[in-house]
Amino acid sequence: MKIHFSTQLKYALSQVAILGMLFTASFGAQASSTLNLANYQLSATYALPRLTAREASAITYNWDTHTLFVIGDEGEALVEVSKTGQQLSVMSLSGFEDTEGLTYMGNGRFVITEERLRNAYQIDYNAGGTADRSVSPFVDLGSPVGNIGVEGITFDPRDGSFITVKEKTPQEINYHFIDFANGTLTTASIFNPSLLGLIDISDVQVLSTGPFTPGSSTANNLLILSQESSRLLEVDRNGSVLSAFDLSGFSSSAEGVTIDTDGIIYIVDENGTRPRLFVLTAVPIPPAFFLFGTGLMALIGMGRRKTR
């Protein structure tokens, strides 16, 4: 009987080892190519300070201070908040209007975009100070349009490039190299946004600012937010949808998205005069060794029962 148990145990060990290797290979491959929004859930909702007369239009993560920065479309202030939505500092804005896009460049420097005029402005954050539009370095991203212009911008620290999105009629997802000192830029379309099947595009965030190695394919992916479709998509640079998250259960007015270095996603919505911050976190997945151990103990238990 002991010999029979030993043989069965060896077989069990080999089978669980194979399962463990398959799980590890499968999960590892998935983790290296996609953020996988299917693993995310809404973990918290916080009220934001009243940033402007109406709404919170854009959000970005400052990896130097590990805080969030939010702007409203009235162009009155750039506000630093904690990851739970508490106001930490404020910088007033002078002369800006229709500010819908915001991204962080590092070393306290931000870029703000105006939707209708389609201008991008570079500012240095000074808590308690004021950024004056008339003296801020800027570039023209396109001819002025109505309320269907530049809705979002994201900075890629790997190569210093920017990606912007135009809301609709037509939708655009463009790649830029911007020289703010000389007011010049080069622009190219990344892919045709109609591939995404979204009613509008509200914001964009490159995943290179998340918890990924700079050379990984995941770091190259984009988060695309749609207010009217109430969806958050993860897409690659060819426009293929890799994963999706449905926002319709908690927001129909989401306008801005960002991700921090822990992979936590933050979304802001206008919600009338009571803007909100939504926090999306990944649901923990049991590691392979845990599944291996669980399966092993179960098989050993079966073997012991058969030897009695």
Structure characteristics:
3 helices; 4-stranded antiparallel β-sheet; about 300 residues; alpha+beta; globular; 2 domains; single chain; Neuraminidase; 5-stranded mixed β-sheet; 21 strands
Describe the overall structure.
The chain is α+β, with helices and mostly antiparallel strands and 308 residues long. The protein has two domains: 2-25 and 289-307; 36-286, Neuraminidase (6 Propeller), CATH 2.120.10.30. The chain contains three helices and 21 strands. The chain has helices spanning 2-33, 217-220, 288-307, and strands spanning 40-47, 58-62, 67-71, 77-81, 87-94, 99-106, 109-114, 119-124, 130-132, 138-140, 150-156, 161-166, 172-179, 184-189, 203-206, 222-226, 231-235, 241-246, 254-259, 265-269, 276-282. Helix 1 (2-33) runs antiparallel to helix 3. The protein is globular and about 50 Å long.
**Mass-distribution shape:** globular
H/E element order: HEEEEEEEEEEEEEEEHEEEEEEH
Q: Would you identify the CATH architecture of the largest domain?
A: 6 Propeller
- Binned strand content: 35-45%
Count of helices? 3
Structural class, please?
alpha+beta
Question: Can you give the helix content as a percent range?
Answer: 10-25%
Poorly predicted ranges (pLDDT <50, ≥5 residues)?
15-32, 288-294
- CATH class type of the largest domain: Mainly Beta
Q: What is the topology, as strand order, of the major beta sheet?
A: 2-3-4-5-9
Instruction: Tell me the number of structural domains.
Output: 2
User: Radius of gyration, rounded?
Assistant: 24 Å
Number of strands: 21
Any idea of the CATH topology of the largest domain?
Answer: Neuraminidase
